[in-house]
Write a structure and sequence with these properties.
7 strands; binds NADP nicotinamide-adenine-dinucleotide phosphate; Rossmann fold; alpha/beta
Length: 257
Amino acid sequence: MFSLKGKRAIVTGAGSGIGQSTAIAFAKQGANVSVLEINLEAANETVEKIRINGGQAEASECDVTDHDQVQEVFDKLGADHGGLDCLINNAGIAHVGNILNTDEKDFDRVMNVNLKGVFNCLKGGVRQMVKSGGGAIVNIASTVATMAINDRLAYSTSKGGVLAMTYSVAKDHLPDKIRCNAIQPGRIHTPFVDGFIAENYPENQEEIFRKLSDYQPLGRMGKPEEVAAMAVFLCSDEASFITGSPFAVDGGTLYVR
Ligand code: NAP
């Protein structure tokens, strides 16, 4: 079960955290993984980790906010591999702020990476999947796409948009045999969280780490591999009856308060 043998996959933002774990998990299940990253060095590190264990992967430098670059990269990868079967839209950035203290510039930056980046990659990915006769897409949203926490105005807005795009793509591309689902991770321990704590709470990092861990009803942060496992399932043939659905991987945050 859950084999991805022979599937051609693209994972964005796969040089770190959830994206890196997802790329590694996909390769372990037999997929040929294209690691897309704004930072080529980080992408190469992921590829190295995969190849050392006998997996198939290659790195491509790609800024998901750059519409034309994204289309070029997806077209090239589609041509090189003869199509595309799986796309994981994972690249994203954090932001802290409410409506009064979020600058227009910061709002635009967050929307550009987290929402327009997904739009750009969906456009490139769906085009390839239509040619391939179908595929499976997983968009990494967040619990805050559907619940409120303090000071995440721009971030939550972007992730709510990711969920809405998930439903639209799932509906529009039913006839193309493309399934599109989303994952709503709760707090997952990655460089994204460490960076967020260091930047926003430099004075009391340990205390904040504990507080953020305790917030999840299961009493800890998730691991990137736990999100990757859900992405593997959603792209496997075992998930062939699932489309247009959000899946929480959140230690009980959304429904077990
Ligand atoms: P991470 O460790 O910071 O990884 C994100 C990766 O995306 C980084 O390698 C980053 O590169 C890359 N990236 C950023 N901007 C990019 C761009 N414009 N084009 C291409 N790549 C870009 O973060 P993570 O925690 O694994 O998060 C991954 C996803 O999960 C994000 O969408 C995030 O919103 C979502 N999520 C995370 C959590 C959590 O608690 N960790 C919870 C819910 C949802 P650089 O490092 O070079 O910027």
